[in-house]
Amino acid sequence: MRTPFYVTTPIYYVNDRPHIGHAYTTIAADLLTRFHRLSGREAFFLTGTDEHGSKVAEAAQAAGLSEQEFCDRTIEYFKTAWKNLSIEYDGFIRTTSERHKKAVWKILDAMRSAKTPDGKDVVYTGFYEGLYCTGCEKFLTEKDLVNGLCPDHNRKPELVKEKNYFFRLSAFLPAIKKKIESNELLILPEERRREVLGLIEQDIGDFSLSREKVKWGIPLSFDKTQLAYVWVDALTNYISAIGYADDDKSFSKWWKNGEAVHLMAKDILKFHCLYWPAMLMAAGVKTPDKIFIHGFFTVDGEKMSKSLGKKIDPNDLVAEFGPDVTRYLLLTQFPFGTDGDIQVNRFVRQYNSDLANDLGNLVSRVAKLVETNCGGKLPESFKNIAGQKELIEQAEALPSIVYKHLEQFSLDKAIAEIINLVKAGNKFFNDSAPWKLAKEGKIKELGGILNTCCEVIRIVSILLYPVLPNKARELRRVLGLDDSTLNIKNAENFFALKPGTKIELEKALFPRLDTMKSDAVIAEPKAVHNESGNNLLDFSEFAKMKLKVAQVLKAEKVEGADKLLKLEIDLGDEKRQIVAGVAEFYTPEQITGKKIIVVVNLKPARIRGINSNGMLLAAKKGKLLALVTPDGDLPPGADVS
Ligand code: MSP
After folding, report:
1. Catalytic annotation present for 100
2. Residue 405 half-sphere exposure, CB side, CA atoms within 13 Å?
3. Which of 228, 541, 543, 606 has the most CB atoms around its CB within 10 Å?
C-alpha cells in the first residue's frame, strides 16, 4: 500500500482577487493530485483562504463591510476562479471557521505547555518593539526598507510597541537543520534548500506568537487580550483542515501516515521551512515531508503582487482559452521552480504549436483516415511498420518517466515529455504516409499505422489528463473510452484498444487561433465603462491610493529641467523628497511652506536622476495650474480620503 498523498497550497489572503500567481500553485496542486490518483494512490488536495489580520480588516473597512461579511464575499472570487479552472480540491479551509479556531487553540495550548530541547518554556512573554508591515503581515528591520518604505508594498511600516508572547524558535533550529540535511524534511529545489540552511546560520531570532493591538483574529487560548499572530493562525490550516482538533482518524491518515507536501512560492519560504516545523515539533506533531518552492513570476517584466504591478485574472485567460489550455499554458512557460516572465502574447503561438498543430492535428488526421478508409472503426493492429517499434518503446517508457519528473515536481518536464510522444506520433504518421497506402490498396498496413496512432493518442489521453482534464476526456470519447480505463496502469501497455471500436471526432479539439487581445487580459488596473464612456474604478481600487497632507519644507530648481522642482516635504512622521513638474507655475520661494496633497504610496521613481517618492496633486486647465491644498489648518500627515 502506498502512503496517501496530501498536498496543500498556501491559503490566499482574501483582501484581493485571485491572480495567475495564485492560480499557478493551485493548478500545480490539482495536477499532482490527479496524477497520484491515476497511479492508484489516495490523495487529498487542500486549499483555502487566510482571512485574519490587519490587512483584511483594512480592506473590509475600505469596502464598508464587517470583516466577516467581507471575507464571506471575497472567498467566492477564489472558489469561482478555481471552478473556472477545473480545479477540484478536496478541502477548502477558511481560517474564520470554527473547526480551524479549535485547531489553533489546540496547537497554542500544546506549544504553551511545551519545553525546548534544553528545558526552557517554548512560549514566553516579552515586549516587542519593531517595524510592522501590514502588507506582508510581518516585522521588518531597517535593512529591509528602501527609502523608509517596505519595498514590496511601498508603504511605511508602523512602529509597534506591545506586550507579546514569543515562540523560542532559536531552540529548534539545530533540530530543523538536521531534518533538512537528512531529507526527513525535504526542501526542493536544491537552491531553496540551501537558502533555508543559510537562514538557519543567520541570527533570525524568535518570533512573536501574538499581537495585542490587532483586532481581527483568533484570541489566544490562554490570554484573550491577545490575538494569535496571523502566520501562526494561517500555518495551522494545514492540520486543522484534516482533523487535528476533531478527527483523529482523518488526521492520522493524511498527516501522520501520509506524505504531506506543501507547495508555495519563495515569498513565504521562511514561515514554512522554519516557523512551521518548529511549531509542530513544539506541539509534538510530525513535520511535513516535502516542501516545494516554485518560482515567482512577473508579467511582461513587471512584478505582480497584490498592491503593485500588472495582474492577470485567471478568469480572463479562461474566457480566452478555456480551462484546460489556460492550465497548460501557465504550467509550461518556464520550469516549475525557477522565476520567469509571463508574456501573454506568446500564448497563442505556443497553443497553436503544441496543442493545435501537434496534438489536435494528429487526432484529426487519424480520425479522418479511419473514417474514410476503415468505416469509422478502429482497424486491427499490424506489426513491423518502419519506426513503429521505437514509437511503442517511447510510449511504454513514458508513464515512468512522467512519474519520475512529477516526483521531483518537474511539472514542465513531465508535460514536455508527453508532448514529445505526440510529436513522435506525428512523425511516425508523416513518415509512413498512410494516405498513400490507401491509394495503393495496402489496407492492412494502413490500418496498422492508424491503430498505432490511436494507441499513442490513448496513452496521451491518460497522461495529459492531470493537465487537461476536460480535453483528455473529450479525446478519450473520440476513442470510445470512458473513465474506467483512465489510470496509469492502462498507459503502460500498448495495444489496449479493441479493434472495431467506433472512432469519431465531431469537431476539432484544439482549433487554431489567430490572435488574442492580450490587452484585455492584463489588468493595470481594470477599467469599467459607464454609459458616458468614462472609466469607473471599483471603490476598492480607489481605496488603494493613499493621500496625505504634506508641507513643503524646501524647494529648488532641477538643473537642466525647466519644468521641475525638487521638493523636500514633511509628512508628519517622515520627510520625503519628491520631484514635481510645477516650476513654470511656482518659484521655489512661492511653494516653500505651502500645504499640499501628496499620493504617498506610489512606487518610487527616478526623474532626471533624482529620486522622487510621491506625487503632489494639482489642478490644470489649459495653461493654468494650481496646487490642490487643504481648506483649513491641518497638520502634515493628515489623511485625505
Ligand atoms: N496568506 C499567506 C499564505 C499563508 S499559508 C499558511 C499568503 N497569501 S498570498 O495570497 O499572498 O499568496 C502567496 C502565494 O501565492 C505564493 O506563495 C504563491 O503560491 C502564489 N503567488 C502569488 N504571486 C505569485 C507570483 N507572482 N508568482 C508565482 N506564485 C505566486 O502569502
Report:
1. no
2. 20
3. 228
Question: What local confidence, expressed as pLDDT, does residue 517 receive?
Answer: 56
Is any ligand 1 atom within 6 A of the Cβ of residue 77? Answer: no
The span from the CA of 228 to the CA of 111, in Å, is 13
Catalytic residue among 52, 101, 106, 133: 133
Helices within 375-468 (DSSP H only): 388-407, 411-432, 434-440, 443-463
Count of residues making up the chain: 641
Shortest-distance atom of ligand 1 to CA 263 = 19
609 within 8 A of 630, measured Cβ to Cβ: no
Q: 597, 545 in Cβ contact below 8 A? A: no
CA–centroid distance, 493 to ligand 1, in Å, is 40
Instruction: For residue 298, give the ligand 1 atom closest to its CA.
Output: 26
Q: How many CA atoms does the CB half-sphere of 487 hold within 13 Å?
A: 8
Contacts 24+ apart (CB under 8 A), 111-114: 111/167, 111/209, 111/279, 111/282, 111/283, 112/221, 112/222, 114/282, 114/283, 114/284
Residue nearest to atom 30 of ligand 1 (CA): 21
Please, which residues have CB within 8 angstroms of residue 425's CB and are 6 or more apart in sequence?
Answer: 362, 391, 453, 456, 457, 460
| Beta strands at 91-94 and 43-50: parallel, antiparallel or unpaired | parallel
Say how far apart CA 156 and CA 150 lie, in whole Å.
Answer: 6
Ligand 1 contacts CB of residue 234 (under 6 A): yes
Please give the distance, rounded to the nearest whole angstrom, from the Cα atom of residue 315 to the centre of ligand 1.
18
pLDDT tens-digit series, residues 562-583: 888 999 999 988 889 999 989 9
Q: Which of 303, 368, 377, 413 is catalytic?
A: 303
Q: Is 36 a catalytic residue?
A: no
Q: Identify which of 615, 599, 24, 602 has the alpha carbon closest to the alpha carbon of residue 309.
A: 602
Contact 475, 460 (CB under 8 A): yes
In degrees, rounded to 5, the angle at the alpha carbon of residue 171 between the alpha carbons of residues 168 and 176 is 115
12 CB within 6 A, ligand 1: yes
Active site residue 133: yes
22 is catalytic: yes
Q: For the range 337-341, what are the long-range contacts, defined as Cβ-Cβ under 8 Å and sequence gap of 24 or more?
A: 337/188, 337/189, 337/292, 337/293, 337/294, 337/295, 337/409, 337/410, 338/189, 338/295, 339/295, 339/296, 339/297, 339/298, 340/295, 340/297, 340/298, 341/297, 341/298, 341/299, 341/300, 341/301
**Structural Rg of the chain based on CA atoms:** 29
Is residue 534 predicted with pLDDT exceeding 80? no
H or E element, residue 492? none
Q: Is 264 in the pocket of ligand 1 (CB under 6 A)?
A: yes
Tell me: pLDDT of 525 over 50: no
Q: Which of 46, 50, 137 to mutate to test the pocket of ligand 1 (most atoms within 8 A of CB)?
A: 50
Q: At residue 301, does pLDDT exceed 90?
A: no
